[in-house]
Amino acid sequence: MSEKNKLSRNQKDTSDDMVNLVDNIDRQNDLKFNRRSFLKTAVAASVTLGVATLPFSIKAMLNDGDEEPVKVKIGKLSEVGKGESINFNYPTDQEPAILVHTKEGNLKAYNNKCTHLQCPVFYEKEQDVLLCPCHRGFFDVNNGHPVAGPPQRELPLIELELLDDVIYAVGRKIRHG
């Protein structure tokens, strides 16, 4: 391309053009807002977001899901018959939990919130399952794993200790990531 054509490329052919498309071209703005600047901005934003979330990532890596054990008295074994359940709060007063004395005589305890939408879970004695009535979610009473319905994650397990007919909650394991 000749030097004369280069210079005249962004200039009007006539002064009475109906559409002057070259009027809105500004070489300085084209240099500021080009593809390279967009990519630099996108990389800088990604690095900034990554650095901003770094403390949360480190905290999540250091927390293995186990909490400081708190020992709370639930009740007496002689007061909970086989096939019955009682509600209690663990590890704080704001977190409901359920203790089930299964038909086989085992003691099982879980957080009493469905892992789908946090509705309370009830022990269904006839089917020997934990039922979330909100969306018909069922959990296996022996391990807390979902067996039917929308819940995809198991209930947090509460560890129990039995001393002289008294049942204690001694820890909680959140088993899903």
Q: Can you describe this structure in just a few lines?
A:
The chain is an alpha+beta fold and 177 residues long. Helices cover 23% and strands 29% of the residues.
Description of the molecule:
This protein has 177 residues and is α+β, with helices and mostly antiparallel strands. The protein is built from three helices and ten strands; from the N terminus they run αααββββββββββ. A four-stranded antiparallel beta sheet has the order 5-6-7-8, with no helix packed on it. A three-stranded antiparallel beta sheet has the order 1-10-9, with no helix packed on it. A three-stranded antiparallel beta sheet has the order 2-3-4, with no helix packed on it. Strand 9 (157-163) and strand 10 form a beta hairpin. The longest helix has 28 residues, at 35-62.
Break the fold down into its secondary structure elements and pairings:
Blueprint: H1 3-8, H2 27-32, H3 35-62, E1 72-76, E2 84-89, E3 96-101, E4 107-111, E5 122-124, E6 129-132, E7 137-140, E8 146-148, E9 157-163, E10 166-173
Rg over CA atoms, rounded to whole Å, is 33 Å
Widest sheet: strand ordering: 5-6-7-8
* Assembly level: single chain
N- and C-termini, Cα separation:
63 Å
**Gross geometry:** elongated
Order of helices and strands: HHHEEEEEEEEEE
What share of residues is helical?
10-25%
Number of helices: 3
Q: Largest sheet, described in full? A: 4 strands, antiparallel
Average predicted confidence as pLDDT: 84
Q: Classify the secondary structure makeup into a structural class.
A: alpha+beta
Give the tally of β-strands: 10
Portion in beta strands? 25-35%
Low-confidence segments: none
